[in-house]
Amino acid sequence: MTEQALSYVDTHFSRFVEELKDLLRIPSISTDPDYAPEVRRAADWLAEHFRKLGFLKVEVFETEGHPIVYAEYTVDATRPTVLVYGHYDVQPPDPLELWTSPPFEPEIRDGNLYARGACDDKGQLFMHVKAAEAYLKTAGTLPVNLKFLLEGEEESGSVHLAPFIEAHRELLAADVVVISDTAMFAPGVPSITYGLRGLAYVEVELTGPARDLHSGVYGGAVENPINVLARLIAGLHDEDHRITIPGFYDDVRPLTEEERRTFRELPFDEKAWMEEIGVSAVRTEKGYTILEAITARPTLDVNGIWGGYQGKGAKTVLPAKAGAKISMRLVPDQDPDDIVEKTRRYFEQKTPPTCKLRFTSLHGGHPVLVDTRHPAMQAAAEAMARVFGRRPYFTREGGSIPVVADFKRLLGLDSVLMGFGLNSDAIHSPDEHFGLDRFRQGIESIVHFLERYGQRPT
Predict the structure, then answer these.
(1) Active-site residue among 38, 120, 153, 154?
(2) Of 170, 172, 182, 279, whose Cβ has the fewest other Cβ atoms within 10 Å?
């Protein structure tokens, strides 16, 4: 059954690429209301594609935002059920002038398919669709019961996804979730992500005088909000690069010695990594390596800061306001709501009476850790080993995928994050691309995964 499916992939791979190009031509930009009809067109395209493949239950669910595509193929109640999550919306392509070829006119160069969404996430979600097709067209069935949940708002916050999941628990019932929206550790080095950091994102604004003032007339007596904000931000880290917010580390789950050993075994070239991002030195939390610091330890970063005069030349202004956007990446067992409140108290206690504080929590998400001994994790590892000729590493990622925590919280389901992108694929940037070799390897890995996980008794 599996060998026939793999042979089908080999025979029809060129068509798979052309079909992916058709999907990539649809500019399904979820953040821009002007593109709402295109987001809808992408949803309808996928729904029709599932129907052509023989999925008997296909529905496009309306939300207050963009639609959610659901498809289901039931084989046997005794077989395990896999729920595949992906997103068909994409980031805006700006700045357009930095693209080598138009972002919605897919082009193959040097074995890579260039287009917005090629890797994030149309190319990766389409691997699952084609793996299912390979079984359906050769065996007339699947090794598992298979469900797809594809949203059109991931790039704009997934506002309506969690309510949808909560309202459709029975429809989405499964044994495991599989997501391909992550990256391999390195070219030719497969990996499965077992940990994601959470997120707490806040905005801080300080107001001093009622209006901008002349610094020569009022400077020295009236507090400058930019100066105050700079002091508060500078105080957020100590000399060991640890975050100084009281209680910030209270619930941090320490890394195990086994985890730290795995980090040391990863083929990570620090010098090459630094050269790639253009830095000559790094600063991590004392006692932790670069990999540990960027994937498995909590962080606090200022993402934006503003205030005062920003134009050309000089203007001797004492500004009325200063602000900053601050994100905190969280690890198990930190709670984003708790961290937001601790951060609020820090700023409330540190802000002098000469300024008024406005503190806003923007959004957040819980960290995730999946047991690598989970049967689906082991099935994925075995499947990828068959394709790549080497067993994948289990790794953590520093970013956040909030829906992974939602699946656990609302459905009680763990997620297998078997991604085939690379950090060099320029997702969210001009010239986003996806290697056709990895597109094929992804399809083949999923074919093997479905077969191996399908052997697991329910």
Answers:
(1) 154
(2) 170
| Secondary structure class of 299 (helix, strand, coil) | strand
What is the bridge-based pairing of β-strands 176-179 and 81-87? parallel
Contact call for residues 70 and 148 (beta carbons, < 8 A): yes
pLDDT of 458 > 70? The answer is: no
For domain 198-249+302-328+337-365, say whether CATH 3.30.70.360 is its number. yes
State how far the alpha carbon of 150 is from the alpha carbons of 69, 85, 108, 209, 273, in Å: 5, 6, 26, 49, 33
In the chain, where the domains are located: 2-196+367-454, 198-249+302-328+337-365, 253-297
Question: What fold characterizes domain 2-196+367-454?
Answer: Aminopeptidase (3.40.630)
**Catalytic residue flag (residue 89):** yes
The more confident residue out of 386 and 399 is: 386
| Neighbour count for residue 220 (Cβ, 10 Å) | 9
pLDDT digit string, tens, across residues 199-234: 999 999 999 999 999 999 999 999 999 999 999 999
Cα–Cα nearest to 392, from 402, 380, 404, 375:
380
| Per annotation, catalytic residue among 38, 72, 89, 406 | 89
How far CA 297 is from CA of 37, 235, 239, 251, 282, in Å, comes to 41, 19, 17, 12, 15
**pLDDT at position 102 over 90:** yes
154 is catalytic: yes
Nearest to 87 by CA among 362, 401, 398: 401
